[in-house]
Every structure is written in C-alpha cells, then in structure tokens.
Amino acid sequence: MNERTTLLAGLLLLTCTYVFAAQQSLRPGGIAIIDIGGTDTGAPTATFNGKPVLVMRRDNGWVAVVGIPLDAEIGSLLIHSGGEEIPVQISDHSYREQRLTVEPGYVTLNEEQLERVGQERKIIDAALTDFREIRMDGISLAAPVDGPQSSSFGLRRFFNDQPRSPHKGMDIAASNGTPIVAPREGLVAATGNFFFNGNTILLDHGQGLVTLYCHLSEISVEVGQSVAGGDVIGAVGATGRVTGPHLHFGTYLNGTAVDPAILLRP
Ligand SMILES: [Zn+2]
To answer: How many Å lie between the centroid of ligand 1 and the Cα of residue 171?
Structure first.
C-alpha cells in the first residue's frame, strides 16, 4: 500500500466510525449521551434513578449513555456522576396508537396464565437489569435480520380494544425461518418459551446493553453461551401473541427499553 492509499483507508475508517456512532435522542424511549469527564487511567461511574449506566470513551473523554424511560416526565432528568448532578432536558414526543386483534385468550388471562406470566416477567427482568462490567467501545448494532424495519417502537397499543403497555421494541418483517444473527458480541442471558413473547432470547452485550428477540420459530443458543456479532442465534417465527411471523427486536439500556432505530447502523 502506498502512502496515498494508506491515508485514504485511514480517512474511510474515520468516516465509518463517525457514521456508526449512535447519536443521542432526548425524548421518552430515547438515549442521552452525557459528557462526564474522567481521565485516561480510569472510567468514571454514573447512575440514573440509583442504577448504574453504561460508560464508554468518546473523543477525548468519557460519556454516560442513558436509556430514557418511555414514561419519563417531560422536563429534566438527573444523571449522577462523581458526586455531581447533571440535569438533562427531555423533549415531548407523541407516540401513535395501534389497535390489534388477537385471539381473546391473549387479552383476558386466567389465574394460571397470570401466574405463568408473572414468573416469566422475573426471568426477563433479571436479564434486562444485569450489569456486566466490561469495557464498551460502542453501542451500535447491526440489523439482526434482513427485512423492513417498522417504526413501531413506543406505539400505544390496544389489543381487541383493551389498553395494554406500549410497544417496547421494533417489529421487523421477515418470513418464518429467516435466520436471526447477533447484532454485536454478547452473552446469552436467558431463553424460554414465554406466554406473550413466544420463543425468546435475551443477549447481554455488557454494561446493561441488552437485546431481546421474540416470537422465534427456533432458538439455536443456550444460556451462558458467548456469541460474536453475526452468529446465528435463532430463526423468525410466529410464536406467542402475534398476528403473523416477524421479529420483535427490543433494545435496553439501564433496564429501560429504548428505540432500536437509534442504535441500529444505517
Ligand atoms: Zn413487537
């Protein structure tokens, strides 16, 4: 390689790194990226609502990457770092309504089903709130499946006209059996066949960045297994509360669902 191609390659690499760096989005369901200073020798720590948040290097300093809850109040959030309180202004964002019709058995549950859903919630919450202290060089994700990515995050949902919790992920249209790949390296935190989510995988990418895959036809990984970005983890299906085959893709920071569109590489 001559000097000129080396320079070009370097420039290209710089450009790509810049393009793939997720940008902040200061709204409910968005991400705040806050400068918290620090030194070359050690990463500072930061918390939000008493929980640790992801900290990584950006430019010459450190940033806290904070998931903003969908039910966050408009106004100011407080991030704590190094004994300081850092206020972050959140803007309003109105999410649309979505009305879906599913089998009545998925809307009104009997006691046994409620008990089952409660147990499953514990497994999912444990995986979502795990904080694995590893060094993070970024938070961007590759698309887990090929397919049209809907802007369905945050929709205020009604199932058979009954209000239910907002849609905490992105639905990606793909046919039954389409392979799903890990969007970056991680550990398999949980798997299961859950009432609403059907066959499900949770991947822990470190420092509270967790991804969720629901309604699969097949799970190809086991709890505790490490995966590299691009490894096949399962296949698209239509298990659980669905109206047809698709991947429900959830992305979480500090235990809170954030819009996957912010993290996905273009
Ligand atoms: Zn979904």
So the answer is: 5
